[in-house]
Amino acid sequence: MIALDLQNLLICRNILKDKLIQELANAVSSPDDLAVTHCFAGHLMEKAEREGWSGNLIRSLFLHLLSQEGCLAAKMAEAAHGQIGSSLHNAFIHDMKKLLPALREKASDIVNVKLLDDYQPSLPQKLEATVYLEQQLEGKTNAEEITQAFLTYYSKYGYGEIASYPAFCWNTKYQKLQGIRHFEAMDFADIIAYKRQKEQLISNTAAFISRRPANNVLLVGARGTGKSSGVKALAKAYYTDGLRLIQMQKAQLCDLPKIMSSLRQYASKRFIIFFDDLSFEESDSDYKYLKSAIEGGVESRPENVLIYATSNRRHLIRETWRDRNDGQDELFRNDSINETISLSDRFGLIINYLEPTQDEYLDIIDHFLRQEGIALEREELRVLGHRWNLEHSGRSGRSARQFVTHYLGQMQEK
């Protein structure tokens, strides 16, 4: 059996806190104790089933810990775009020499359980970041090469959940970001019509990713027109370029300062904080957190953060005819109006979405039907589509997709 010298790690010692690593150390130190070995192997297979790991499970375990838990080198490489000091670099090489057996040798040469050599989980899956890391490690045999592969990975993806997921939510209970494991986003090619709106959205976001000046964005207009889909598509399209989407609820606005502060540490990443279907009543005061976060607060917004929001209201805060009435009670009527519109004015780019035309509506239906291998004549498409929008909520991308779902379901029933 091959020995592992994990106790002499320098900057990767945080992996020693992991329960599976502790069980592995016990199994390696007592190779003749089958109960200890099988306890470790059983728990490792449970982890592999949950995570979808395949192949050499001991290697998968160490890759997971080094990419998710990170180390001092990971933190500095992510912050400094892959460039770390020579002393830290040498310390990382030192640790890689200690970890080489776990990364290169067969699992059964470390613990005598052959099942761990080429494990096939029930539901195999690999995160995009993990695939990239394995590609970087392919063919690397010495500690220096492996060290550089990890640094390249940390520079591009970072470490932990920030590396693994394109989209996050804010966990209010634990006051931290939480990766959205099953994030569903459309491709821009599947967002039909709204060409100018897509160009504005992509252009602003591309400037942001390239570290050029970019604006906070308000997408406003008719319901079901693809405002939210466009923002989510950005996270899918620019994930490998370092863009991350953080979806928040209006009730979490008070946590914005804490979130902004936590995002400063990820210097190599760009973050869009996204509020979907945002609007306020006159009695709401939480919108002031948003005003302060965009601009005007004591602490400036981090340069790697923008705020995107969608709304059906142009000014976000509900207006009434009374607000425009000269006879209202407030002494300075213009002050009230300015307060109402000042929030939306802080978004440098406002993108307007109108209800699609009849032809655009039919084009959306046609696009998604053709994806399923169905091509209807234009007249039949027009009749069915028009009947659907009359019976439902009018023309929109959402109602078009709902029609396609209904049509496919009826076909399968027949």
Keywords for this entry:
single chain; 414 residues; alpha/beta; Rossmann fold; 3 domains; seven-stranded mixed beta sheet; 16 helices; 7 strands; globular
Are there runs of 5+ residues with pLDDT below 50, and where? Answer: none
Share in helix: 40-55%
- The number of distinct structural domains comes to 3
| Shape type | globular
Strand order of the largest sheet: 2-1-4-5-6-3-7
CATH architectural arrangement of the largest domain: 3-Layer(aba) Sandwich
Number of helices: 16
Order of helices and strands: HHHHHHHHEEHEHEHEHEHEHHH
Structural class: alpha/beta
Using only C-alpha atoms, the radius of gyration works out to 27 Å
Q: Report the span from N to C terminus.
A: 62 Å
Give the oligomer, counting copies of the same chain as homo and different chains as hetero.
Answer: single chain
Q: How many beta-strand elements?
A: 7
CATH topology of the largest domain: Rossmann fold
Q: What's the mean pLDDT score?
A: 88
Strand content: 5-15%
Structure description:
The protein is an alpha/beta fold and 414 residues long. The protein folds into 3 domains: 13-160, no CATH class; 178-353, Rossmann fold; 358-413. The chain has 16 helices and 7 strands. It has helices spanning 19-29, 34-51, 57-68, 72-79, 86-104, 128-137, 143-157, 161-164, 195-209, 227-237, 256-263, 287-294, 333-345, 358-371, 378-391, 397-413, and strands spanning 167-171, 176-179, 217-221, 243-248, 270-275, 305-311, 349-353. It has a 7-stranded mixed sheet with strand order 2-1-4-5-6-3-7. Strand 1 (167-171) and strand 2 form a beta hairpin. Helix 4 packs across helix 7 (143-157), helix 6 runs antiparallel to helix 7 (143-157) and helix 14 (358-371) crosses helix 15 (378-391). The longest helix has 19 residues, at 86-104.
